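Sequence and structure are kept together here, with a separate record for every protein. A complete record is shown below as an example:
=====
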Amino acid sequence: MAVGTLQNEVTPILFNEEAGAGIWLMRVTAPYIASTGKPGQFIHARIPGMDEHMLRRPFGIYAQDPNEQTIDIMYQVLGFGTEHMTTLKPGDSLELIGPVGRPWQPPQGCKRALLVAGGVGSAPLFPLAQQLTCDGVDVVAILGAQTAEALVAKERFCEALGGDPRCSTDDGSFGYKGFCTPLVEEAITEAEEAGAPFDYIACCGPEPLMKLVANLTANTQAYCEVSLEKRMACGIGVCLSCVVDTIHGKRRACVDGPVFPAKEVIW
């Protein structure tokens, strides 16, 4: 899959609102990234008002609209930087490098896909759900979060897939109570028993979840990919701060990833 050239865009903020449980949704005008970004790629953002923190911050592209020339960014408030982001208003601007990285790469002829998201890992998977559905692929989505309020992508997945995703919450406030891995095992077993196993499995979320999903799929026929979250400095493959250990040696999450074949990652 061809990946476009990086560009630096100054992107005005259209809105920046809390979607629930400390998770925020921001929309910016970014004509080039909106028209060239592939599902699974990300942007590297310079945040205004943070001159003392010079490093950019990576965020997956949650949604893009080439016609409106916009992209959406989902972020969770976890520290000083993301807390500061919540103070940004319409009319403020981010400086973005993008689209960056290796996108999702479903196998040719894929008929059935399983998408597994933990927390804000749902953001990089949502464009993939849209793409696969438009391509006529039968998609099952599993979303896990701490609480019902944190399942902020549930409605968008429902619209994209034309049906409800399977959900789990740590506290049992919605769907299955506990981690989402039992739902993954259940979906894989159901598909195999029905004689229609998944061709493709994609996962994004906390590393323990991705490791478990990789292990669960190791003995299936499905091609499995994971999107790895790493701290990044340059975001363009120069500084080597986001190295991932793989069976092919050390790889850079920013440009060799963030999406990797699960069987190649050394967990």
The longest helix spans residues 122-134. The helical segments are 31-36, 80-85, 122-134, 154-161, 181-193, 207-217. The longest strand covers residues 7-20.
